[in-house]
Amino acid sequence: MMRRSFGVFVGAVVLVATAAAAWAQAALTPAQPEEVGLSSQRLEKIGLVFKQEIEQGKLPGAVVMIARKGRVAYHEAFGFQDKAKEQPMRKDSIFRIYSMTKPLASVAAMTLVEDGKIQLTDPVSKWLPEFRNLQVSVPASDALGQPSYRLVAADRGPTVQDLFRHTSGLAYGEITANPLVKAAYTKARLFKPDFDYNATDLTPEEEVQAIAAAPLAYQPGTTWEYSMAVDVLGRVVEKASGKRLGEFMDERLFKPLNMVDSGFSVPADKMGRLAEALPNDPATGTPNRLIDVAQPPKNDSAGAGGVSTASDYLRFAEMMLEGGKLDNVRIVSRTTVALMASDHLGPQVRRSVTPGEQLMGVPGYTFGLGFMVRQEPGLAGVPGSQGEFMWAGYAGDVLLDRSERAARRGPHDAGAGTKPRLLPQGAEAARLSGDRRLTALKSVGAGLFFIPGAPHRSVAANSSCSTCSCRSAIRCRPSSKLRRTYPRRVRCSSAR
User: Fold this and answer.
1) Number of domains present in the structure of the chain
2) Domain contains 467
3) How confident is the model over 138-151, as pLDDT tens digits?
């Protein structure tokens, strides 16, 4: 059987959650660590690591949840919810989850696929007519042979599947190095150089018109590049359902899963629970600007606009771990979860930067429907399982590995005297914690991290490839999704 896991990054404070298969009782009820095969002594090491990070000024605070066998064995809050106001962190603090909204929105969209209202092969223009007759910005040379760009007609329009798997030709202004695309996104306020990943001040109609008017960075279906595609997917969901995205997700996801604090804004009576990042990035000194969630946004951003709590998101993760069902409430079918966690790129889709390189600087990953998928046990230089599926956001991580259910009854349980195994994402967590290993965390099913006020790195196109001048090599740039340094120039995928 193919092993699978699920994960994502985003930014807020620090949140960690792990989960494994639910047993007969209701999901996520409290348990003593030893009742579910964990070690109280080892779990204490997690708090020590985060307390040190907080004392050193790297993090404002943390909420940590760990569950195994469907029961919560560890739930603690550390540090500050708002350090500037000296407000202590609460276990029910609410976080801006940024790109951790993408998995939620992708699953919500798949409920419409199951309903037969949306087909993966639908052209986006079926739902959003503005996406007809698109143009593509492609590399060219001027009369002097200097590199430039020109506009050509799109060979075909993007499909709904392209939106899920980031092959639509869309981009993020924060990441793309295509000058015509970046200029168009900047002019339309889709990209703000001083405020990353915030287009919630546009109405849905303004957002659709702006994205469709900008040139594509690639021909649809030809190249994987992380983008605003899931924002567009959210607009498709609204057209197909006839409801605002937040209303639809509340009806089909949040209420059925009892995710009582999740949505796209924070009600006035809950604002006292909103977690805030440090005022400035500890590594660069750059001010941290976060989306205003005190009022409903002009558009519900499926790509970066959500809010949630540790407890809420753990319920979503447990549902995915259980194949689309939690507490006898089915959200999607097992076959839909399997489809989302399968390779949807294949050999025909070019990766100037692979999903694994984008997030962690390692090869070995492809992309499914809303999630990055690990293709084999080896190759990637981080622990993990073949078939795990995950994605990252502005400053956090969620990981869920169904393959590790087998460990719950075997010799790898994290009991006293056993050799600890890190979560599949444990190596990245260790890097975020100054290379100190969270030895209490075993591969028990899922992991979730929200980290605010920390430096990030992004992969973007360089001026040219060191081998073939195709302009698709990667370079390092600040203020985005990664926290490690990449080489300034590397060979592109076509030159490897």
Assistant:
1) 1
2) no
3) 998 777 778 889 99
